Amino acid sequence: MAELEECEFFRKISTDKRLMMKKNYLLLFLTFVLVGCQNEMDVSKQNKDQTQSDIQEEVEIAENTNIPASLLNEISQQISVPIEDITEGDLLKVKSINITSQNNDDVSALSEMKNLESLYVSAPIDISSISELNNLKYLYLMNMNYPITKFDFLTSHEQLNTLDIQNSGIEDLKEFPTLKKLESLSLVNNQVQDLAPIENLTSLEVLDITNNQITSLSPLENLMNLHSLSLDNNPIKDATPIGKLSSLLFLSINGIPIDSIEFVQELNKLERLQISDTEVSDLSSLVNLKSLSYLDIRNTNVTSIKALRELESLHILLLNKDKVKDWKSLENKAGLRISETVILAE
Question: Residues 232, 210: contact at Cβ < 8 Å?
């Protein structure tokens, strides 16, 4: 009897151990399941976060899909931000931009660069977007490859300091009177005929209207702050108004139909004078120009440079040695270089 009871006791213990082991296995299994679920949730969350990041990046890039690659590259260089990271807000950081692509790119994004101060364009673009750039101070429009017929956008740019429009077919300056702060104006290689619209731009210091169709210079008489004036290759009938511009340091009148330069004799501050390809024959009007350091008389009717002997500041003289009979009289003048080809001023 005692042996039966002992066997029953050990059987019960064995059963209890098996039950305990089952419970432990079950708990271990449930633990693995829970850990696996948690890991899956974490991975899912990471994937979700990554997806949201990718979406955000795609949104940022999508904002710039209407900006051509050439312009994006220029923006990237100007603000030191990788192209893929440029956002619409970054456009407000751009202060200067150069547009040179010849692909007729869409540059409407320019209107979003509200803080742009300098714009250089040498490409065929729609310039209407420029009208909204109210902080623009320096504007260069070069070789646009087609005539610009409307400059209405200039009326909203009274703050402009420098305006350079070259090879763009401009004929009329009617929008220019509002540019009161303009200090430098270049209209090289256009079809301008009348300077009347700029006669009150008294802040002008530099004016270059080379290769146009100007006949009258009377509108320039009020521009007393001019210190640089280029009038090359214009059909000017009367150059005497130049004589009133007492602040001139630089004057270039190459290729204009004149035979006298008497009008320069009162320009005491003049340092550089270019009169090549004119009918000028007499240099006596230069006798008192003590500041003159550079003179170009090539392809003129000048045969004598006797009038230049007392000009102590003269350092560069360009002439045709076969025409000027006495050029050797100044050959040994201290500090003077005589040449038949262009010498860059020091």
Answer: yes
Please indicate whether residue 100 or residue 210 has the higher confidence score (pLDDT). Answer: 210
What CATH number belongs to 67-135?
Answer: 3.80.10.10
Q: CA-to-CA distance for 80 and 49, rounded, in angstroms?
A: 28
Average pLDDT over residues 258-284: 97
**DSSP state for residue 263 in the 8-state scheme:** G
Contacts 24+ apart (CB under 8 A), 70-78: 70/99, 70/100, 70/101, 70/103, 70/105, 71/97, 71/99, 71/101, 71/105, 71/107, 71/109, 74/98, 74/99
Assign 129 a pLDDT band (cuts: 50, 70, 90): confident
Helix (H) or strand (E) holding 272: strand 272-274
Checking if the pLDDT of 45 tops 70, the result is no
Each domain of the chain, given as residue ranges in start order, spans 1-62, 67-135, 136-339
Class of CATH domain 136-339: alpha beta
Instruction: Give me the pLDDT at residue 261, please.
Output: 97
Asked if the domains at 67-135 and 136-339 fall in one CATH topology, the answer is yes
- Give CA–CA dist 47/70, Å, rounded: 34
The pLDDT, as a whole number, for residue 183 is 98
d(CA 94, CA 75): 7
